[in-house]
Amino acid sequence: MSSSTPSSTKMCQLVADKHVRYILMAEKKKESFESVVMDHLRMNGAYWGLTALDLLEKLGSVSEDEVVSWLMTCQHESGGFAGNTGHDPHILYTLSAVQILALFDKLDILDVEKVSSYVAGLQNEDGSFSGDMWGEIDTRFSYIAICCLSILKCLDKINVEKAVDYIVSCKNLDGGFGCTPGAESHAGQIFCCVGALAITGSLHHVDKDLLGWWLCERQVKNGGLNGRPEKLADVCYSWWVLSSLIMIDRVHWIDKAKLVKFILDCQDLENGGISDRPDDAVDIFHTYFGVAGLSLLEYPGVKAIDPAYALPVDVINRIMFTK
């Protein structure tokens, strides 16, 4: 796994080619235990893997046609997408499907009216969003709806003002945000709330110094970031915390070099892939968030990622600046 050389020696490099091979192999191992357990999440896994490949400039190594035709088998008559063929639709997978099509510049194959109506139909009277027909409410779903509709240029289909008011009602005294009003601040939810506010031009609702302080306090001794006080560092927070700090313009408050080292120490240098922390087993989720974190840290050889949309900057520019 990670090299056990003392930290004073030269930092290990990003083994990008091995990560590319790991991602491509992970997609082929359909029979493995991990694959069976993750079967219902396949759409998210595809988004993580494909976005990581694009950030490493290797999206061309997968068959676009194969991915897109599988993806379209996951769409329901409701307009929403499921995590895999034959599963129920959910807002989570709908955003991943839209993001994957955006990566391939294939949004034009969507019935945008149908997809956007599915997402807009999940908004509740108080401005919050449910994840699916079963009605669970979470600020994650607010972000997902806003991000998805923004990519499809259909934000006018929802009550944006109410959506923003609901997110603001989830703000806590520490400057952070929870999943519902009164729920504790958590870095993942903070990303969702800050991202949604950034996309809707509503960042004035955030106390940037207070939240920035809470977020930079997430950096622990080994350079990694945690999601809440007293928790272990985890590579995925290199995305949730860092992107939030960038959106509120407080990223200079953390030690970037130490964070780069932490992410690189979580690589499997032999077989590729990135784990949650050094010497743990790698997975596609942490591989994506590790690469995305390095992108935010402007690591050489990794394309720039948009902190609000979680897609490469060139993809977002292509969407936003075309008619």
Task: Explain what you see.
Catalyzes the transfer of a geranylgeranyl moiety from geranylgeranyl diphosphate to both cysteines of proteins with the C-terminal sequence -XXCC, -XCXC and -CCXX. Belongs to the protein prenyltransferase subunit beta family. This is Geranylgeranyl transferase type-2 subunit beta. The protein is mainly alpha-helical and 323 residues long. The protein has one domain: Alpha/alpha barrel (Glycosyltransferase). Helices cover 46% and strands 1% of the residues. It has 14 helices and two strands; from the N terminus they run ααααααααααααββαα. The chain has helices at residues 16-28, 33-37, 42-55, 64-73, 91-103, 112-120, 139-151, 160-168, 187-199, 208-216, 237-247, 256-265, 284-296, 313-320; strands at 274-275, 282-283. Strands 1-2 form a two-stranded antiparallel ribbon. Helix 1 (16-28) runs antiparallel to helix 3, helix 3 packs parallel to helix 5 (91-103) and helix 3 (42-55) packs parallel to helix 13 (284-296). The protein is globular, with a radius of gyration of 19 Å. The protein starts with 15 loop residues before the first helix and ends with a helix. 48% of the residues are buried. Residues 1-9 have low confidence and may be disordered.
